[in-house]
Amino acid sequence: MSATVNKIYASRRRMNHITMGLSLAATLFGLGWLVLILGTLLFEGFSGLSLRVFTEMTPPPGAAGGLLNPIMGSLVLTILAVMFGTPIGILAGTYMAEYGRHEKLTSVVRFINDILLSAPSIVIGLFIYEVMVYPMGHFSGWAGAVALSVIVIPVVVRTTEDMLTLVPDTLREAAASIGLPRSLMIIRIAYRNAKAGMITGILLAIARITGETAPLLFTSLNNQFWSSDMNAPVASLPVVIFQFALSPYKDWQALAWTGALIITMAVLALSVTARALSSSGKQS
Amino acid sequence: MQSAKGEQSVADLALQSGALQASEASSRSKALARLKLSDSAFRQLTRAAAYFVLILLSGIIVSLVAGSWLALTNFGLGFLVSERWNPVTENFGALAPIYGTLVTSIIAMFIAVPVGLMIAMFLTELCPQWLRRPIGIAIELLAGIPSIIYGIWGLFVFAPFLQDTLQPFLIGLFGNVPVMSSLFAGPPYGIGMLTAGLILAIMVLPFVTSISRDVFSAVPPVLKEAAYGLSCTTWEVVRNVVLPYTRIGVIGGVMLGLGRALGETMAVTFVIGNAHKVSASLIAPGTTISATIANEFTEAVGDMYTSSLILLGLILFVITFIVLAAARYMLLRIARRIG
What we know:
The structure holds two protein chains of two kinds. Chain A contains twelve helices and no strands. Chain A is mostly helical. The longest helix of chain A has 45 residues, at 2-46. Chain B contains 13 helices and two strands. The radius of gyration of chain B is 32 Å and the shape is flat. The N and C termini of chain B lie far apart (82 Å).
């Protein structure tokens, strides 16, 4: 009797050891990829990193050059996308949290927004191609910026709504009791209170679009040269990486690695800042 | 006389102050009217922005249907089951990309789900408190790395590595096993559906992990403590208490990851090989819906070619929409139960 009980205990303990060992192994496995990818990126990208990368245009194959025009193109596209997308996202999030918190409309918008949040970005590229590039007859920087702003909007809507919902109602009631109109209450009290979280959302949105390639492939396309004309194709870092990495030229591939390192560092810096900001916001 | 004069001055004063009050009141009411206007304007503005989100989604659907109309009417439902992809004769079918999308996503989920659940279990049950946050953040950083980085890494590092190690090993291992040998038939190219699936697994892992961790940690401690009080082992607690309690949430997280895997473009485009054929072998090059669009759209000549590619986009959008909607619905249900 006690022998069988002991056997059961032993097998249960063994099972526990095995699964716990597996869970530790799984965690190391997951972290291993992060180390591996970042390690390769640093190793391959760092050797090509020099001042020239930031001061010279993309070269023809076989020549030396830098990534100045795609870096500038990416910056301009990102800034425009944030300028287009953020106000709409903040306003929509405001309606959901402040005016229509218990309305049917809000839950529908939230559901649709969550789907937009994880919709395949290449489909968004097709959408903008259909509504902007095709009617205009040519690829343009504007189309690229709008495509990116479609990705910005759901991120900002989500964080704005979440952050405004966290603002205590007592603050709203206090503002109402001194006769502040609702719009002013939202702008001066609720926004100010939720500022850290809302900025976090915008940073996360920027981090998200910094590396986006698929929606730019057939909207802003690419450009070998410097272009400040947003009506023409504009180079962007991710698309240049795509093109250079798949090319047979060694120096283009090296530049692609350097570009990849720059993008990853930018994205990681943005998400770490966002995280620090949101945790400091929670403490205060 | 005196008093009359005095009365007059008092009346004047009263009149004056009355006029003053009137002007103050009118400016006050003007200000209030202005505020009322701006107040309702702001409200309408926010409302319009909320509707804009809905318009965005319907705009995507309408534009995709409009763009793919030519291919839709020309090929009909046959588009879904045809393997042809011939730009010269303008004969297109979506079977190969759909097959590739499903196979790569299944490989990805096959690996990411158990590993993700294991990591979530480690983080909520086993990990020392001070290590939980750093490990959680590190896993989430994996989600933050742009997909093009996975692509370039997959092409230059991972695919050659697989070509030299895992693929010859699998070919050798299953070479004489009846069914398995056809799964791993052909030369090891490095690139192909297996490689794409493995890269997708790494990309989806953080999604599965972070959602499972969140729902795991939302299990009421009383339930777990009760099980521990019956001297259950950690594994038994997870298996018999945590998992049944969080089942819907975990499935929601898995579906969310699946939605990602189905629509992922750049990483897959680098390593899939872009071959329009349905092949039983996992190590053969193939293609996915998103990779086909990314590779061919800007080079597509002719309306039918473009339209067929947009139709592929529409199919992808419909599939991911269904998967994501189901995921959100399940997560909503678990949120209601916990909250």
